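User: Thanks for the earlier help. One more: Reactive oxygen species modulator 1. Can you show the sequence and predicted structure together?

Assistant: Of course, both are below.
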Amino acid sequence: MPVAVGPYGQTQPSCFDRVKMGFMMGFAVGMAAGAMFGTFSCLRIGMRGRELMGGVGKTMMQSGGTFGTFMAIGMGIRC
């Protein structure tokens, strides 16, 4: 299949590049959501200091990884 060329000579990103970009966008959105929900839930159960930072960081990474994975799958389906 020939590579599509835009009006100024640039090529379209490959399917792998689109999947990577989908993962990165999803990871960023998931991290933001994890920061909000993680902070609220950790404060609600009484965490403070180092324990709070660890709990919020763990929630951010989990949310980012989950949402990033689903966004990457969605971008892969669109290729």
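User: Great, one quick takeaway?

Assistant: The radius of gyration is 18 Å.
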